Amino acid sequence: MFLLYGLAPSLPLQEDFVYHWKAITHYYIETSDDKAPVTDTNIPSHLEQMLDILVQEENERESGETGPCMEYLLHHKILETLYTLGKADCPPGMKQQVLAFYTKLLGRIRQPLLPHINVHRPVQKLIRLCGEVLATPTENEEIQFLCIVCAKLKQDPYLVNFFLESKLKAMASKESTNVITEDMLKGQDSLATDTGQAIQPEEMPGAAGAEHMEKEDELPQQADDLSFSLDELNVTSSPESSTVCPNQDYNLVNSLLNLTKSPDGRIAVKACEGLMLLVSLPEPAAAKCLTQSTCLCELLTDRLATLYRALPQSLDPLDIETVEAINWGLDSYSHKEDASAFPGKRALISFLSWFDYCDQLIKEAQKIAAVAMAKAVRERFFVDVMEPQLMQTSEIGILTSTALLHRIVRQVTSDVLLQELVYFVLGEHREPETLPNINRHPLRHRLIEHCDHISDEISIMTLRMFEHLLQKPHEHILYNLVLRNLEERNYIEYKPLCQEDKDVVENGQIAGAIDLEEDPLFTDLSPDNTGAQEWLSVSPPVSPEHPKNDGKTEVHKIVNSFLCLVPDEAKSSYHVEGTGYDTYLRDAHRQFRDYCLICLRWEWPGSPRSLEKCNLEASFFEGHFLKVLFDRMGRILDQPYDVNLQVTSVLSKLSLFPHPHIHEYLLDPYINLASGCRSLFSVIVRVVGDLMVRIQRIPDFTPKLLLVRKRLLGLEPEGPVIDHMTLLEGVIVLEEFCKELAAIAFVKYHASSTP
């Protein structure tokens, strides 16, 4: 009955196109078996030929010019009719054919089609059919169609306004497309049915599309009688299934949301990619509709909560930390192929993978949408789900939940989501802390308390979480934890040096201090040394506000102060090669440069706030965070080695920040502390005083100390247990920490005095 396009080359494209379309409409008039699958008919072939003709026509014409075949498709509402046939799925499988036709049409035709009312309206209706039922045979075609629409919107974001329909409008269009009418098929040969379809200016940007609708149809009228009744076709229209949200203003999003739940992982990932394109569209109306009239935020957070709750109550923190990097689109874990599998690994990867997707989605999203999604994650996941786990009293539960928080802190990359995470952990307070109000934000208070927990594992994990939090690019973190308490510089007792003080410090040197210029190690790395000059010259430029001085005397004094804190009889590093001060210098320079880059946009001052403008009368409290760190530092001789390493690591990270008050409070041994105040230096001085007393009670102290150091470095095999092991390990950590602080002080002073 049907001729193939290839066998009729003499026919003009226009006539050929009409022929193939009429062949399809004739099927519905002449068929007596509407149960036969569409693949048993010639409909797929005719649709493919129509596409080929449209592509050929476009290739033969100048760019942007619409040919008669495309005019025919637009004028005669072919897409509307195909939508209705696809909705009815008559014959069976027709929905797949219609979806494929729409997808190929939008993908293969270069000229913009979506601005046409007779394209975007049926496209919008077809979108509503997608994702109605999961795991259907049409899922693959549905997601391909939705993704090509998303891609077109990404190319021309203003087009998204065609897909933001009001609820009433959606209901009206739904009712009007539930049946195939006689006029619909008759209308393929007459413009009569098109006269009532006006193009609204707000729906049709520019006049480009209007002229397509106004041109007269030059094709001859079909003589065939295409009339038939709905009963003859036995087409029943099933009611629309309820979608995710009551307000279906943004059906493209709702359909994609449904398909993210597909049991087919490939379909779900494609749906996630489509959502990623939509959230990034710059149109504010679309962003508002996305977050207010769809359930996108609920889907993100509910799935996060479900996957988090599916995790085992107890997970090894090391497993949580070391599980391979997660990319949301590559969540294809196979337990059988994994040699390093552990209980709960599948669930952990699924959770981290979905969190990564939420993070990337918020990172790519338009600002309005990003803020709304991030706030939803904070309220519906961080607060509702994670906080109770972090606040519990079970040690196993605390350890697992803190390790998961640590992993999330490390993994988050979106600035907007990071801010919500920071406010969740620390609260939004910025005024100075007082001892009575340190528990104003209960979670912050609990986490800081956990840094000094009876369980060493919990202490270490919480300290590591804070260490990584401090390295995140958000100004509120350091301000909330430390800086807000140093603003007034009321840790200083402002008075000039008396003669007695001057006698203690002779020529800028503590009695017995080494002269750095005569120290061979320091000489090797002094600024006069070519190699040192090269790597030190990369330091950030000095702030124009910062006074320029040579800093030579000052830096010698401070470096000496830290290097000489630990007495010679308690030092062991000079007996072991490769444990010198130079290593810390190089590390400090690299880390300080990284921290300067993080803090660059925070516009910190280059010099401390003038004391005349500070309220020195206000009582000073270092804040809860520093209080706990100083307390733990004060017990360095009585704590496990791993705890000491973590405490000193956090303190050294704090010391690296290029804020003048941090530098003064943590790295300047010569500030006059106000009564009752302590600084990092004063805490270490007390520890050294205690050490001097305790050394006297330990026989063969120096040989034992050296043996412990060699064992820690793997230079000596493990042997019999040594008495006072905790103290000896604490002394080694103390010596190394003092060298690290000296290196940081040197690098920072050099950076501030280098033009």
From TrEMBL:
<feature type="domain" description="FHF complex subunit HOOK-interacting protein C-terminal">
    <location>
        <begin position="622"/>
        <end position="714"/>
    </location>
</feature>
<comment type="similarity">
    <text>Belongs to the FHIP family.</text>
</comment>
<dbReference type="Pfam" id="PF19314">
    <property type="entry name" value="DUF5917"/>
</dbReference>
<dbReference type="InterPro" id="IPR045669">
    <property type="entry name" value="FHIP_C"/>
</dbReference>
<dbReference type="Pfam" id="PF10257">
    <property type="entry name" value="RAI16-like"/>
</dbReference>
<protein>
    <submittedName>
        <fullName>FHF complex subunit HOOK interacting protein 2A</fullName>
    </submittedName>
</protein>
<dbReference type="InterPro" id="IPR019384">
    <property type="entry name" value="FHIP"/>
</dbReference>
<dbReference type="InterPro" id="IPR045668">
    <property type="entry name" value="FHIP_KELAA_motif"/>
</dbReference>
<dbReference type="Pfam" id="PF19311">
    <property type="entry name" value="KELAA"/>
</dbReference>
